[in-house]
Amino acid sequence: MTSYLVTGASRGIGLGLVQSLVKDPENLVAQEVDQLLPNGLDYLVNNAGISRQLLVTYDDFNYDHLTEELRLNTVCMIKLLGAFKPIISRSTEKKIVTMSSLLASIELSVTCPLIGRSYGIAKAALNMTTRKWIIGNRDSGITGVLIHPGVVRTDMGTPLAEFFKAIGYNGDVLTVDESVHYIRKIVDDPSRFSESVRFCSYKGPDLPF
Ligand SMILES: NC(=O)c1ccc[n+]([C@@H]2O[C@H](COP(=O)([O-])OP(=O)(O)OC[C@H]3O[C@@H](n4cnc5c(N)ncnc54)[C@H](OP(=O)(O)O)[C@@H]3O)[C@@H](O)[C@H]2O)c1
Fold first, then answer.
1. Which among 36, 52, 194, 195 is placed 20 to 30 Å from 43, CA to CA?
2. What separation in Å is there between the alpha carbon of 106 and the centre of ligand 1?
3. Which residues have any ligand 1 atom within 6 Å of their CB?
4. Which residues contact 73 (CB under 8 A, 6 or more apart)?
5. Whose CA is nearest to atom 8 of ligand 1?
């Protein structure tokens, strides 16, 4: 039996992912982790995320929003990893999945400079946190992967999709089910996980950091 803990599962991609996982009777989706999981937690899926000022320029920047984004997207991840390290370490899989974003890529920021100035900072910090934490804990056998789930029609992703449409971008805009399909293909593929933590797009080649 494989166990998963998914943060941010009340709506959007997290809810879609849990609905997909519970269809498989072999899976256990944890709610009360310690009592339910004497054999440890196989997959910690850090999906919860916020974006508070997607299109705001630095001239109009709201620093409280940036602080909030850093707190949830990054600081909470550090706390989550610390809290769950013992239970992940005693599992069979020992895998950490972090929902990142294309907007976290410093290298690709030149191609989309007008969006996610604040969110991009927090998600780039999240990428760094995930990588450094997993490499720093290599003795535990924990591996991880960072995933860009696509531009997805959720509360967070719909304004992003509308922005891209307005500027004439013709790339994919995914439903939650389509995104979850691609996320599951990555999560179910052990070759995607490593100590050095790859930055995987929902499809196509890995993204540059
Ligand atoms: N949608 C996209 O196009 C897109 C693109 C790239 C990356 N992502 C990433 O994918 C992940 C999921 O995004 P989504 O589109 O599904 O977002 P969403 O629809 O806005 O859902 C966000 C989820 O995070 C939870 N959350 C927010 N603040 C929280 C807090 N302080 N504590 C605990 N949970 C909190 C929400 O719970 P409540 O309902 O309680 O607020 C909700 O379940 C995020 O990490 C996001 O950055 C999304």
1. 52
2. 21
3. 8-14, 47-50, 72, 99, 101, 148-149, 151-152, 154-157, 160
4. 49, 50, 119, 122, 123, 125, 126
5. 101
